[in-house]
Amino acid sequence: MAETATAALPALPRSVTRGHEARHLLALPADVVVDEVEVLAMSRFVGTRWDVVPAELPGADVPVGRMAGPGEPGVLRLSRHSTLTGPYAPAGQGFDPGLPAGTQLVFDVVTPRERWDDPPVPGEGDRDGLARSFPGGLPNREEERVVSWLIAAARRLGGSVRLDVAGLWDPAVPADRRGSGTVLTPDPAAAVDLAVFSDVWLDPQACQQVAQAVHPAAALATEGAEYQGPPPGLAEGGLLAADDLDDDERRALHARADDVDIAALQAPQVLDGYGVVTDLGPDGYVTVEVMGETVLPLLLRDLPWAADGCVAYHVRWDPPDVAEAQRERPDPVLVAARRRAAEVVAGMSRALWEAVGGEIADEADFLVDPEDL
After folding, report:
1. b/e for 61-100, b at 16 or more Cβ within 10 A?
2. Which of 10, 249, 270, 316 fits a disulfide with 245 by CB distance 3.0 to 4.6 angstroms?
3. What's residue 175's pLDDT?
4. Quick one: three-class SS letters along 197-258?
């Protein structure tokens, strides 16, 4: 689809909210098209549909809504109470929306204003900068879901968000009821983890071989520690409830326990999950966690091979310093480690997809084209 011409887009309205609503802006670069935003919304919200289809989507199926009129923005319903309206030009109707340079498309998001009563706890991990965006109380419930999606969408599309802008440009709103208007530009490199969803189960040794083709240090994590005997002091003192047993009862109890142990040893081993771990030294670890999964990204749930669940290969980075990795602006040493680890995560995810097929999703449950890894 051709890029949207900014000159043909309407300007942002000064006010669109009622007293119980919050307003946020999604600012995107010129190379983003409207249907990309729609797909990302469908990836997170079950009830996504166009109430008003923008002119940029002339071939859209409109079973419920209608096509936009000349100069009218589209309205994408995220849920019963939240909407995304646009695209708009990066300019307001008589005001400056304060968006980053390079913004070409803007979407206006209205959702219920739902905040925690207490301010954010200082010092906790805040990779996305939400604490400074909502100093009086973080979003929860519906607004939390919407804000989380906005940040993930901006990260995926190379854009920004301006959060909590309700009342900023409306002189009728008292100053103490206006939002913070904080601008966040999520770092795309901060999202490292990926997952491969497939209907093919790789045996542990096969998965290890796939991972080793990307990094030779990949090793199975299924071996347990050798048995070192009972813990010290176990035989000291009484046997609690067993002290009241006579000899016959104690022998019968041990016989039943032996029967359970024998049955367990004779039963076939069923492996329902395993892991492959790659030690990256000072860069931390990359783990491949393999398991059955029934809670899938929304866009996969209607696929025939995933209708009843599937196999998930979660490829994750375990940073050397977890707290530092969750900072909005982590130390450059950690950033360099993250970049190197991300290459391993991407390589293993691509190799697993080539081995088992299926689909790849990022940590926000947005699908990823293997060619982009």
Report:
1. eeeebeebeeeebbbbbbbeebbbbbbbbbbbeeeebebe
2. 249
3. 75
4. EECCCCCHHHHHHHHHCCCCCEEECCCCCCCCCCCCCCCCCCCHHHHHCCHHHHHHHHHHHH
Integer Cα distance of 239 and 252 in angstroms: 16
Give yes or no for a contact between 329 and 132, defined as CB atoms under 8 angstroms apart.
no
Cα distances (angstroms) measured from residue 317 to each of 108, 194, 320, 342 = 34, 9, 9, 8
Quick one: pLDDT band at residue 271, thresholds 50, 70, 90? Answer: low
Q: How many CA atoms lie within 13 A of 351 on its CB side?
A: 19
Could you report the per-residue pLDDT of 319-363, keeping only the tens digit for each? 999 999 999 999 999 999 999 999 999 999 999 999 999 999 999
Mean pLDDT of all residues in 158-179: 85
| SS3 sequence of 299-358 | HHCCCHHHECEEEEEEEEEECCCHHHHCCCCCCHHHHHHHHHHHHHHHHHHHHHHHHHCC
Instruction: Give the percent of the chain with pLDDT over 70.
Output: 87
Distances (CA, A) of 59 to 33, 41, 66: 14, 19, 12
Spatial distance between the Cα atoms of 176 and 190, rounded to a whole number of angstroms: 34
Output DSSP code: residue 127. T
Q: 């207490």: which residue's tokens?
A: 118
* β partners of residue 273: 291
**pTM for the whole structure:** 0.84
**Token code pair at residue 12:** 């942002």
Residue 368 three-state SS: strand
Residue 93 region by backbone torsions, left for phi larger than 0, else alpha for psi between -120 and 50, else beta: beta
Count the neighbouring beta carbons within 10 Å of the beta carbon of residue 306.
21
Whether the predicted pLDDT of 263 surpasses 50: yes
Rounded to whole angstroms, the Cα distance separating 260 from 202 reads: 31
Q: Contact 24/87 with Cβ under 8 angstroms?
A: no
- In 3D space, the residue among 181, 159, 156 whose CA is nearest the CA of residue 168 turns out to be 181
CB 113 within 8 A of CB 166: yes
CA-CA distance, 3 to 1, in Å (whole number)?
Answer: 7
